[in-house]
Specification:
single chain; 101 residues; mainly alpha; SMc04008-like fold; 6 helices; 0% strand; globular
Length: 101
């Protein structure tokens, strides 16, 4: 396995995270409930993890600020533009599989 130092690891992880966020911003057709049902996380989870990391570093971001960072726009604007009504099947799957956090 290739040796990478701690700074490189952080840089690579940050680059991968930025690429994931950009991908999710481009894929507005992918709904959060579908991501939750398939992968167990969604854009809102990422924003919560981002907010938690900021808090750990002593930076006080609120939920909506963190969501705007992940969504690339205010959350309410994203919902208005891109969020669709969840199907009854998606809602049932979510209730069965939703995380406990």
């Amino acid at each position: 396995m290739t040796k990478i130092d701690e700074n490189q690891q952080v840089e690579f992880e940050a680059a991968a995270f930025r690429r994931l966020v950009e991908h999710l911003r481009e894929r507005t057709d992918v709904q959060n409930i579908d991501m939750m049902n398939l992968a167990g996380f969604c854009r809102n989870c990422l924003s919560t993890w981002y907010k938690d990391a900021a808090k750990d570093a002593g930076v006080d971001l609120d939920k909506l600020e963190a969501r705007e960072i992940i969504y690339g726009m205010p959350f309410e604007e994203w919902k208005t533009k891109y969020q669709t009504e969840a199907s009854s099947g998606s809602l049932a799957d979510f209730e069965k599989n939703k995380p406990s956090h």
